[in-house]
Every structure is written in structure tokens, then in C-alpha cells.
Amino acid sequence: MKLVKKIKSILLIDDKVEKEKNIEDIGDILEYGCLDNLEIKEGINLLLLYLPLEKDHVLKESILHTIHNGIVYHDGASEISLDLLLQHLPTFNEEHLTYVLTFLGFSGTQKYVITLELYLNHCSEEIKERAKEAISEIKHRDSKAEK
User: Fold this and answer.
1) 70 vs 31: CA distance, rounded Å
2) Where does 85-147 sit in CATH, by number?
3) 104 closest CA partner among 112, 92, 96, 114
4) 104 near 134, Cβ under 8 Å?
5) Closest among 57, 139, 141 to 99, alpha carbons compared
6) Phi and psi, residue 69, nearest 5°
7) Domain boundaries of the chain, sorted by first residue
8) C-alpha–C-alpha distance, residues 104 and 76, integer Å
9) How far apart are CA 43 and CA 45, in angstroms?
10) pLDDT tens-place string over residues 1-22
11) Cβ–Cβ contacts within 10 Å for residue 15, how many?
12) What is the pLDDT of residue 37?
């Protein structure tokens, strides 16, 4: 569990610039590295737990991008604890929310459709579009699973 240990040490860094660089390095590892699924899942879940605690918007975006890499390059959204983010959805700015809605879609989890539907009437066209795409992704993954 070298990845989890490394993430834990990064989250303790006080210097924002150094912390951001190290978080981005984790994103690169998730994109290009060869890790086992359990390690990826635990690393992403650790970042998900920490995300609502981070107040700096730039660092929060770096964390979201890193999580995105783990989900996209390892198809891991169905195996992580996205429920952790649901109560924090109203606290995310528009840019951060687009990531989270994408994560919900990639999960393929039907229970998130209700949450995503709430964003179909959002004032931001980008958020509406992202919610539509996420719902479509869930339906697509659900139909593939039925075959």
C-alpha cells in the first residue's frame, strides 16, 4: 500500500505549492502507473474523505483531477465511496461540481440518477449538460451489464 502511505504523507504537507505538486504526481501515477485495484481504490477513497476538508480551490481541483485519473484510467468509479461526496455537493463550485457529476456517471450506479436529475435544472448550462451526460453514462453502463 505504498500509494496510500504516500497520499497520507502528502495530505499532511502545509506548503500549498508543494502539496499541489505532490497531488498532481499522484494523478500521474494513477494515469501511467501499474497499481493493483485495491491500492487504487483505497487511495481514491482516502482522497474522497479528505476532499471536503480542503478549503483551497486550486488544491481541491488538483485532488478532483487526481481522483478523475484513477476513475478514468482504471475504471474504478463503481468501487469507490462516492456517497461521501453527496452531502457536500452544494459546497462545490461549478468547476468542482462538474468533476463530481462525472464521477457519479462513471460509477454506473442507478441510485445516483435521482441526485443527477436535481442538476438538470441548474442555472449553469455546463452543469445541466454534465448531469445529462452522467445520467446517460449510468444508463449505458446499466444496459451493458444486462447483456
Assistant:
1) 7
2) 1.25.10
3) 112
4) yes
5) 57
6) -60, -45
7) 1-81, 85-147
8) 11
9) 5
10) 699 999 999 999 999 999 999 9
11) 9
12) 86
Sites in the chain below the pLDDT cut of 50: none
Geometric angle at alpha carbon 67, from 92 and 2, rounded to 5°:
135
CB atoms within 10 A of CB 114: 8
Contact between 25 and 33 under an 8 Å Cβ cutoff? The reply is: no
> How high is the pLDDT of residue 78?
74
Location of C-alpha cell 445529462: 132
Q: What is the CA radius of gyration of the chain?
A: 15
Whole-number Å distance between alpha carbons of 53 and 20:
15
pLDDT at res. 68? 94
What is the 3-class SS of the chain, one letter each residue? Answer: CHHHHHHHHHHCCCCHHHHHHHHHHHHHHHHHCCCCHHHHHHHHHHHHHHHHHCCCHHHHHHHHHHHHHHHHHHCCHHHCCCHHHHCCHHHCCHHHHHHHHHHHHHHCCCCHHHHHHHHHHCCCHHHHHHHHHHHHHHHHHHHHHHC
Q: In this structure, how many other beta carbons lie within 10 angstroms of the beta carbon of residue 12?
A: 7
